[in-house]
Amino acid sequence: MGICAADETHRRFLERAFERLGLAADLRRLLLAPFRETRVSIPLKLRWDGRETVRVYTGFRVQHNHARGPFRGACASTRPPPWPRPAPWPA
Fold first, then answer.
1. Domain total in the chain
2. CA-based nearest residue to 59, from 74, 48, 70
3. Contact 35/64 with Cβ under 8 angstroms?
4. Are residues 75 and 38 in the same domain?
5. Chain-centre distance for alpha carbon 89
6. Per the domain annotation, does 85 fall within a domain?
7. What is the pLDDT of residues 28-42, one digit of tens each?
């Protein structure tokens, strides 16, 4: 899996910050490496217009250094699902 443009931008930003702070190489590696990374892949068989296709959706969660407190946040997906969002439940 290749590095995406957002990851390159993120690393460039951090490298500039590390230079300004004068951080040692070992601290830089520690801050750049995730503490935990979880990926899941879910294959779904979809039926559209009488045709069946299988699409694989990938979700991920990355957690970094937790020294300042517990991890928080939500999971993310690589792309939105192909079906429309359901309407909100009537009040």
1. 2
2. 74
3. yes
4. yes
5. 29
6. no
7. 888 888 888 888 999
